[in-house]
Amino acid sequence: MANREKNKKTLLELAKLSQNCCCADCGATDPDWASCTLGIFVCLNCSGTHRNLPSVSRIKSIRLDFWDDELVQFMKSNGNRAAKNFYEKFVPVFYYQPQPDDCEVLREQWIRAKYERMEFAEKNRDRPYTADVYEGMLWKKGKDNGQFLERKFVLSVHDFTLKYYKEDESKGPKATISVKDLNATFQPEKIGHAHGLQITYCVENHTRNLFVYHKNGQEIVNWFNAIRAIRLAYLKTAFPTASNEELIPWITRNYLKEGYMEKTGPLYEFSFLFVLKDAIELGVVFIGPENHGYSVRECVPKGTRGNKWKCGVIVETPDRQFVFMCEQERDQREWVEALKTIISKPMMPQDYTSKIITPLNQMC
What we know:
With about 375 residues, this protein is an alpha+beta fold. Helix content is about 25%, strand content about 30%. It is built from 10 helices and 18 strands. Helix 1 packs parallel to helix 3 (about 70-75). InterPro entries: Arf-GAP_dual-PH_domain (IPR052589), ARFGAP/RecO (IPR037278), ArfGAP_dom (IPR001164), ArfGAP_dom_sf (IPR038508), PH-like_dom_sf (IPR011993), PH1_ADAP (IPR037849), PH_domain (IPR001849).
């Protein structure tokens, strides 16, 4: 008969090992759950997705559930490292691997891709997001009325563009977007859909946004990774001497901070976003590293006119000083912390020629 306390102690010790101390799927620390059929330790959030895969994964608590001796031995013989070496052996370098704070659809599809579809266990496995041309239908938010309408999108590595069409495709694309300044990030709350994706790009030195979703989680994540694939292909062309490790952080970038601030009167919405820019844009403050003359600090500015909010943030750039006002001290601290995170980030060698910098965007 299994010794409950002994097996629990063994499992807790296994979970503390360096190869098991982080969730096998999102990297969250101190996982308290395990898949006794896959031999991996996972966090609470990822365990929920595993529970939806009963034919693949059986989830148990390492603290609360009863474990047979055979299952404990199976966990000892496997573990997160062994699973990674098998299930993630051929993950494309551009493929986004979710972090603990990422949205549900990214985490779910990553888990399903690994264990249910076995997308990365074989070298020559068919992966549609690696195709030179990726096309399909997405629900796009209308600019005027805010309604979502189904539109055809085409992503092509041949000319590094993303095109989308209205109802009559014979009239050509409604827009042709260069992937040079393209960014994509999941924004389910902002878009109002669990699969909401925000695509940001530049037109004549102005930032534009497309808000899209797909009803199928796998399809929207395929679109996201198809964008990442073409972005990496473009970056390799633009910076042929840069390594994958140097380029990967610039494929797509998540928002670091988003909220409202005042600037000399009107109320603007600003967003922190990692982007590639080649020109200064109206309504954007470019943020570079500290050793290039950029700094940020809290302040209580005197003499500002028209500002209802009193918690100031001063951003110094080599060209000028910007003063923004926050409603509360908490907002002020969060903005200063976020800005300091960017300013403390060193630039890579190719940044000096490509002007890879971070803008504080005025969102329309």
